[in-house]
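Internal ticket #5521
Category: modeling
Description: The requester needs a full-assembly model to guide mutagenesis choices. All entity lines are attached below as received. Residue total reported by intake: 341.
Assigned to: D.W.
Attached entities:
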Amino acid sequence: MASIETGGSGSGKKAVNQEIPLIPFIDLLLCCVMFLLATAVWNQLAAMNANQQVPGQASTEDAPPEDEKVKLILQVRNSGYVLGSSAGESIDIKKRVVADQREFDVDELEAKLAQWKQAWDKREDLIVAPEDGVRYEDVIVAMDVASAAGFKALSMADGAAFL
Amino acid sequence: MAIKRPQPELLHHIPLRFVRNRVAGHGRKAVDHQIPLIPFIDFLIVLVIFLLMSFSASGELIAQQPTITMPAASNTEQIEISPVVAVDERVITLDGSRVADTQTLGATAQVDRIEPLIQGLEAEKRKWETIHPSEPFAGQVIVQADRNIDFRVVKKVMFSAAAAGYGNVSFAVNQREK
């Protein structure tokens, strides 16, 4: 056991020698270790939230301002991304060829979404519309890029509705 | 205040010279051993700090399934307690109970209702409304799908969830550092 001694015997005064109780301290640390081991979360899981565009669903909020009536849409197609709006804009981002494989051009999407965010700086809503046949991971990547660009309020819709 | 240097204490109270000599060594290997408590405490403190860093107060709400490899994303939110629909390459399960086959759903293009899933989610919704009568229903469902699944299957799951009143979908992902 660790102790602190002054060398004097006290001689009528209060003894200043102190014992540091290391064993209870070790017991406490061991209890902490066991508790933390039992409750430890090794998988860092998280979620990406999206609302669904349900047809015919009435809006519970007041009518949006004029510029918010324009819907911003990110289509994830088998041929690539298409950024569009209900105002008629359309930006096609084709897949690129990397090592004889056609892959989604995520860098180009990042750049275009950043430009879009500047043009629609007050908007945070974006409809993600994946097409049938697209891998689930590619949709999540598109949503992640859109969220990073500032479009936090993501909605999901059927890609076939925008073809 | 002076701090006394730690010294061997074992068997020192026995008033026999040969015992004291043997304990102190005197040419032989000493039998008095000190347990190094301070490095042990240092080790425990480091271990506690490491475990505290991986501690989550909300616990593990969904488990990583061996048949599902989830995609990774960096701009994520925390998972909240909701029914979990797991989609792997073979089956679709709701909180562990099988509700449909992935291959069957992926074969057709039309948006089918998954009736067992709708019934299961409606039962969950009724249970939630019974437990929380004064709170509005959030309608949130967690979709935990394999990264290589055709989105057509996930779309059918989402359509069925919306039909059961679950309009907010949380896609479970592995957290990636930003």
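Resolution: model delivered.
Comment from assignee: The helical segments of chain A are 22-39, 106-119, 136-148.
Ticket closed.
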